[in-house]
Structure formats: structure tokens, C-alpha cells
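Exercise: predict the fold of this chain.
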Amino acid sequence: MAICLSQELEKGIHFHQQGQLSEADKIYTQILRISPRNADALHLMGVLANQKGENATALDLINQAIKFFLKTRSIIIIWETSIGTGASMPMHWSVISKQST
């Protein structure tokens, strides 16, 4: 039985938003087993890691997400965070289309 990754991602996001982090983690992990370079799942796993206080893991996962995202899209991402400062980590990505010169 094939699964639809986008539908599974939506389920994971729903669980995540409801505070059901272990359920969200299971879904994101399942997605990454099938598609290890899925930038959305990597990003959300990074958010989960941050929520668990695993800042180094969070940073690594989000950096991977950015790397794979940039390989598949013509954009620039500016990621603002406070990892390592003791403050809660805002998940803010600014996406700017690359301009042709």
C-alpha cells in the first residue's frame, strides 16, 4: 500500500499542532524513511527536536532541510533563530525568490 507523502505530512502537522509530539514524530520519521531528503519533514523534525531541548539536533535537521530545499527550488531562505541563546526558537523562514541578473 503506497502512502501519499503530502497527506502524511498534513497528518503529522495536525498532531504537532495539537501537541501530540510523539505521533507527529512517528509520521515525520516514516516520511523520512521513504524520502530521506524531504525538506518539510526534516524541518518539522528539527522543530520537534528544539521543542525537546535538543538544540544541536534541531540545528542539524533544519540545516539539512534548507540544503535540500535549496537544491530543488530557485530561492534564497533567510532563517532567523535563537538556538543556543536560551530563548525559545522562533521558526521563521523568509523566502525570497532569486532574481536573474
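Check your answer against the key: The chain has four helices and two strands.
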